[in-house]
Amino acid sequence: MSRKPRRNVLAIVLAGGEGKRLMPLTADRAKPAVPFAGIYRLIDFALSNVVNSGYLKIVVLTQYKSHSLDRHVTRTWRMSTMLGNYVAPVPAQQRVGKRWYLGSADAIFQSLNLIRDETPDIIVVVGADHVYRMDFSQMVEQHVETGAACTVAAIRQPIGLADQFGVIDVDPEDTSQIRDFLEKPKDAVGLPDNPQEVLASMGNYVFDADALVEAVTRDADLDDSAHDMGGDIVPAFVRRERAAVYDFKDNLVPGATDRDRGYWRDVGTMSSYYAAHMDVVSPLPIFNLYNFDWPIYTSYGPQPPVKIVQGEGGHEAAIGDAVLSPGVVVSGGSVDRSVLSPDVRIESGASVDDSVLLNGVIVGEGAVVKNAIVDKFVVIPPGAELGVDPEADAARGFQVEDGLTILGKFQPFPED
User: Fold this and answer.
1) Inside any domain, residue 75
2) Higher pLDDT, 294 or 16
3) Cα(232)–Cα(253) distance, rounded to whole angstroms?
4) Which residues are CB-neighbours of 376 under 8 A, at least 6 positions away?
5) Which domain holds residue 355?
6) Which of 281, 299, 321 represents a domain boundary (last residue)?
């Protein structure tokens, strides 16, 4: 029996995102380092998908406020060096001049030494700030079968939302071929098999290695280019009729359920970040963290188990729909429809509803927290209210957005 030739695949994770729309969560960290669902960082989803797909040579290109991200990747994502596997965070190196990355394509252009060193046949390029599960090996197989030089992963969206995405127009005669790449079109045409849907780019790509190197090198010399993978590199392949699309609905991940199959969430805004957490909290989760056939890997340190006990004065703890991380202690408080990260403390008589609390947050005795996102190490004083009165929160100097009250890392709670 003959074996298929083994392809040398290099994965590049684009993790330089600044994440301005996630301020203040990105005031002290890059967007891919933002915590999610208690114990994870956003980048863990991209890296877990790549590793679970069988690709174990990975470089992570970083730029903005990368210390937290570099530390997490270095401490968590250790591979077997004996087998030549690695996850390597690579900061902007200014190899081609005294400048930072001008865009995602320029990030790859400035890091071509990594490609030359590895000499891969195929390059998988993924973003680092989405929540989803995906088997990239299935996308690579289609890429090879079609003979395309570039393949773009796409997810189906209602045609009414087309003006919010980069939309892929396919050839009706061959729906795997990209006919045009449209940036937030107002007059999008539906898909041949479903006129009410369009294909939106997911920001994940597969390339023949030599074709990608040629494309980013050519793009680097174009003064009118934004040096962006989706905005410049993919359209260049489309114009040369060398681009294919991979429909995310065809991706079958082991352990997926009918409810969470095909889940993909861009958490680029506070409202979408919050909504993705509520997806996790749901009794029948739209995104299931408990799929052990396709695990999401991370590391959260030596935390003790969750502890739920009676508080002072005989207050009984009450836990509704919630995700409680290791190290959480609820002492006679109540928690419902909320995500609590490691080392969070809820004291006697306090209540937390419809909220996301990051590491080390303390909610004092009798305090009330609702509709809030609270970054690390914030202390909510005893008896205080947060998220109950948005006008009062804004008067305190807190960020109020889309019905949410948001506190940054170490942000003090002013005395009334």
Assistant:
1) yes
2) 294
3) 30
4) 35, 341, 358, 359, 360, 361, 409, 410
5) 307-407
6) 281
